[in-house]
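Weekly puzzle thread! Below is a chain. First person to post its structure in token form gets bragging rights.
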Amino acid sequence: MEINKQIGPPMALAWFVWGLGALFYLAGFFQRVAPGVMTLELMQDFHISASGLGHLSGLYFYAYVAMQIPTGILADALGPRKLLTAGCLVAGVGTLLFALSSGFFLAGLGRLLIGGSVAVAFVGLLKLSSSWFPEKIYAFVGGNALSIGLIGAVTAGPPLRFLMDTFHWRMVIGVTGVMTLALGGLIWFVVRDWPQEKGYPGFTENLPPPIPLSGRSICQSLLKVAAFRNTWLLFIIPGGIVGCILTFSGLWGVPYLISHHQMSPARAAGLTSVLLVAWALGAPFFGWLSDYLGKRKPLYLIGSMVVAMGWALILFRESLSFQQLFLVFFVTGFFSGCMILGFAFARESVPPSLSGTVSGLTNMGVMMGPMFLQPAVGWILDRHWTGQLIKGVRVYSLDAYEIGFTPMMCWVLLSVLLLFFTKETHCRQMR
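Winning reply:
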């Protein structure tokens, strides 16, 4: 009888189950930004320009974005265990294909498989967060999820660069593919959708019935979610914040810093990793502070304003010293953590039965930023290329980079503007 009086599962078990899903999210983030420190190797091996590299990296985001609405619906219908297991297996195969590819087509197919499969990681993790943890710490748990993912992004900075200086990039990426396959097996045997499936009381008395998978049910879920104003605003807003940070740290920041701040590749990778480390620290802080204050909108708005000012300095202020760049990168990355509030904000803006669908839609908006901005910056750079080559690789002028980075600045300013039109939820779930 005592176990029935317990509220929820043991926290150690909840964090362990959640942590396995978080490891998959970490692997997905690693794959997301790895091309940022492999630009020269990829351009040389596949004989591509900045535009081609932008599209190769962008294939991850095309598939990731396309999968978000199906992922949200599948999360509600199938549950996170099946979703995360299948995602790991496909991601492992895609990673091995990318590592072993001899040409652009197979490499692109590998990136496409990786992006489409890791797309399930964050939404699946949010579903585990809502079933294994009390609602009052949902934003804090979500912030920790982003932090775990960003650890993967940081390992794709200096640690990956170090490994690539020791081993061939194909070997390093191939090993990560094998590890992802092994993680899929572990998730299948350990993770369960609800604490009740392991014999522990949950935070809901009755498990929700599974949502049938049919064209009609999918359309009904989307139409219901679309009826709420916050849904569409919170779909567009995070793309500016995440688009800037992943376009810069995930692809164009390292060559920009090498060319125009005369940094070594290792130092440039380290500096872009400061953005990601600070982002990892900022996300749980904003989640905790929002839960504590009972507010979403003002913290999201203040954070976005600071982010916009930070990117204006990074992208268009040429005279910053290394120490000044370090400080601005850290502040910009830390306040970028405010975007994690969008998931709790959106989830609270719709009925509980639509939580997976709206989480998928919000995450789709998050990835729309890098999906459009990475290839757009590459396209603009190629249009303003002056013909300079170093070791057969194109080198771009400072003017080209400043013009190329303009779309990033425009989107983050749009994010700030749209936040004024959102409706505060006061951290309370709509019923």
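Puzzle host: Confirmed. Bonus trivia for everyone else. The chain is about 75% helix and 0% strand.
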